[in-house]
Known about the structure:
Layout: H1 6-10, H2 18-32, H3 42-56, H4 59-68, H5 72-77, H6 87-97, E1 114-120, H7 122-127, E2 129-140, E3 156-157, E4 166-173, E5 176-183, E6 192-193, E7 206-217, E8 226-229, E9 245-251, E10 258-260, E11 263-271, H8 272-277, E12 279-285, E13 288-294, E14 303-306, E15 322-329, H9 336-348
Parallel strand pairs: 1-9, 11-15
Antiparallel strand pairs: 2-7, 3-6, 4-5, 8-9, 10-11, 12-13, 14-15
Amino acid sequence: MPKRDYYEVLGIAKNATDEEIKRAFRRLAFKYHPDRNRDDGAEERFKEINEAYEVLSDPDKRTAYDRFGHGGAEGLFGRGFEGFNFGGFGDIFDAFFGGATTATRQAPQRGADLHYRLTITFEETAFGCEKEINILRIENCSLCQGIGCKPGNQPSRCPNCNGTGQVRRVQQSIFGRFTSTTTCSQCHGEGRIITESCPQCRGTGKEKRQRSILVKIPAGVDDGTQIRLMGEGETGTRGGSSGNLYITLSVLPHQFFTRDGDNILYELPINFAQAALGVEVEVSTLDGEVTLKIPAGCQTGKVFHLKNKGIPHLHRSGRGDQLVTLRVVTPDKLTKEQRQLFQELSNSLSPSKSR
Length: 355
């Protein structure tokens, strides 16, 4: 089944801003997250939304997608220097000296880094959590332990370069005698030869394996926070170190709260009578219900601070606040009795003077 247009998936225009893309993602991710939506197809829809956001939220991937469509980012950034000609200088060098410059034995190579996008809830950002993720990565072959030989065998020293991975050539030219060192063509710079390959990895010493990794997420993280797990990327080559695993967090929107730095914003609706007379109400916080005393005569827009009820600071102790903003609600439907009472109240109040 062909993939849908990423802009269509998020329900945004092609000229949407970064903020519009993030807002659309939050809204849809909240609606279709498997923990909240058990309907058939919700999980696939959630994966589709995540895939679209991962491309459109990255400027380079978005540019590639706009130009080439699906697969454009991978196609564009995977080509490297393919087709670029570096041979001109080497041909001239060979013409005079009969060989290339000094070549060294292939050095240890660090493994590739891996990237993973993890979606968590608003509450999990506040209190921290542990998540188990599954990744597919390249590791040393479990049968030959990365050697590449059939179990019971060992690689032999290359007879062509005597295990150095290099071949020296001495050549006479019109400029005198020159010595050049090139990579051994028989062992390709490895210095060793495998006579009987491992049947599991076919001599490569590597295999792809599925791994479950437990990720500890500290309290106070935010949308876009990146967590680095050292050495959890792909295994290196020729004794090189393993790469890292980078986990980027996506936070689902909350039904009532929004975040402003480490503060939490909350809108509290009250009626005319409560605003005029004052009232004590129960207000939701991340820690549960708390009692808030609203004095008489409060207006829409009045802000109350609930100290230390916000998000914990990520790199220091303490927490932000919860800011409760009042919104006086005008009733749009009244019973006959209520209308009569409001009329009596209106008659008893001082009339407003027009300017």
